[in-house]
Amino acid sequence: MSNTFPLSSFASLRTPFYHYDLPLLRRTLDAIRAAVADHNNFQVHYAVKANANPVILQTIARQGFGADCVSGGEIEAALYAGFPAEKIVFAGVGKADWEIELALRAGIACFNVESLPELEVINDMALAMGRVANVAFRVNPNVDAHTHAKITTGLNENKFGIAMDDLLPAIRRTAEMKGVRYVGMHFHIGSQILELDVFDHLSERINELQARLEADGIHTSSINVGGGLGIDYADPDAHPIPAFSDYFRRFATHLRLRPGQQLHFELGRSVVAQCGTLVARTLYVKHGHTKDFLIVDAGFTELIRPAMYGSSHAIQNLSAAPGTASSVYDVVGPICESSDVFGKDVTLATAGRGDLIAFRSAGAYGEVMASTYNCRRLPQAHFTYGDE
Ligand code: LLP
């Protein structure tokens, strides 16, 4: 079943707002759990950056998932929502001292360390607090994720992680320290990945690295392959739930785990994208000389993905009666910047002032990236709860 909208209750709500279909989120979580049930050494952490709405976080935490955090604020939000500290991993190239201290105090599972200077600071702070921090090194496996340039991260030299050749020296340095313990390797090669063989390549790269480490007598207890599984933006109703079994099977088939080794995942978009919709109201239909503009009351302040990444979301006129004729519009927002465009030459049911317009698949990197630019208010969130 696809996303369902309680249209009658939408009429009285101030737009723009986010609507979340929690029954769809729960079905998505069930699908993930069912897909990992075949693999008892797989552990899924929800990537909080995709959507940190407290209701969403609590829904996910309740189902036993871990959390992947990239800031102290995300760690606090995850703990507050009920994610246990021992299932929280902490990544990020620029962890501030207060964030490291917060994570050490909370007793999180693992720091995904992205540089040697960071390792030194974690070690010093852990020693000062009488703790030993588990660390995994984020390694750039040099695998091309075949995705948008702004969301690809696994190629060799970028701000994230360390190069493969630097891993062994980093582990050796860790062995000399008393405040940190090497537990594993961490990878994340990009986001919105739809060509699943990219994950086969990642697995093969990890196998090579493992063999190199073992030749040096180094034992790795945990491997974290990050997130990245893509979703169907073009037709969310056809694919409301991503093919999780296929995704996990790629790793089960290609990654040679050692006995007792845990495989961690950090899924964000694939968990929450399809349950969320940005709902806006049509302000004006402006008939230009060569095209018509549908001007809505949401802009890149509510959903920045089209302006920032050139990505497109399916757009629907929720107010149109079935069978309404369609028109072609450039769908634009009110922000005073020419990049405030949701889509060009979009075909949708002919709209008039007041019609509700849905921007689908907006549950991931939507509300969480909203801003108050132009002194706009942050969008509210509304939920369909369904039966628990
Ligand atoms: N782990 C790490 C280390 C990451 O950097 C990310 C996403 C994830 C996990 C979750 O990846 P996912 O499963 O969601 O693909 N704002 C952009 C996406 C940025 C992704 C950043 N990192 C967008 O709207 O497309």
Draw up the topology in text.
Elements: H1 7-10, E1 17-21, H2 22-37, E2 42-47, H3 54-62, E3 66-69, H4 72-81, E4 88-90, H5 97-106, E5 110-113, H6 116-128, E6 133-140, E7 162-163, H7 167-175, E8 180-186, H8 197-215, E9 222-224, H9 244-254, E10 262-267, H10 269-272, E11 276-287, E12 292-296, H11 305-309, E13 315-317, E14 326-332, E15 341-349, E16 356-359, E17 380-384
Parallel strand pairs: 1-17, 2-3, 2-10, 3-4, 4-5, 5-6, 6-7, 6-8, 8-9, 9-10, 12-14
Antiparallel strand pairs: 1-11, 11-12, 11-16, 13-16, 14-15
Helix pairs in contact: 5-6, 8-9
Bound molecules: ligand LLP.
Number of helices: 11
> What small molecules accompany the polymer chains?
ligand LLP
Tell me the major beta sheet.
8 strands, mixed
Helix content: 25-40%
